[in-house]
Amino acid sequence: MSTLFNNEKITLSLSDGLFEYYPNFFTEEKATQYFKQLLEETSWQQDSITVFGKTYLQPRLTALYGNNGKDYAYSNIKMHPKNFSPLLMYIKNEVEAVCNENFTTALLNLYRNGNDSNGWHADNEKELGKNPIIASLSLGEERVFHIKHNTKDEKFKLNLENGSLLLMKEGSQIHYKHQLPKTKQLKTSRINLTFRTIL
After folding, report:
1. Gap between the Cα atoms of 41 and 161, Å rounded
2. pLDDT one-digit tens code per residue, 104-154
3. Which residues pair with 51 in a beta bridge?
4. Residue-wise over 161-197: b if at least 16 C-beta within 10 A, else e?
5. Do 194 and 136 contact (CB within 8 A), yes or no?
6. What are the residues whose beta carbons fall under 8 Å from the beta carbon of 181, sequence distance 6 or more?
7. Among candidate residues 49, 14, 54, the one with its CA nearest the CA of residue 153
């Protein structure tokens, strides 16, 4: 077995969507190395979003990378992708090998501390297709990830560890929403890479 990758898989107990979690996708050493490199090399930006008529800065920094030149739009924000760096291409290939997908795009999120967050949402934009598969890699600080069903009383919390991979597969964006809430606990920075296919 590779010292960089551990294929231990945990399938979450959710009724209408397939969620698979790899707690040690990359070793702690490699995950920390990739975190530091991406933190320095990434062209981070902070966009404004408008909710209920009020405009404010997103509570996180973002960056978009891709290989097909297609824009990605969400929450009235339109992002144009930069080309994959060698490190991002390497990580993408490793992720694709375990989930048998060919992703075109990576949306990177930098959560600088516990005040940075991402509210309830589904990755269900029309350019992702009807039943998209999202691969979410966590680097850096551990944060708690929430999942809830759209119509059933079904909720799940998952601690996303440094170097872990969460695959949100069939049904995950149709029947569920997810969030990364703020926390009052002292937190350092976390980078989240979400790989997706833009049609």
Report:
1. 22
2. 999 999 999 999 999 999 999 999 999 999 999 999 999 999 999 999 999
3. 54
4. bbbbbbbbbeebbebbbbebebeeeebeebbbbbbbb
5. yes
6. 117, 119, 144, 146
7. 14
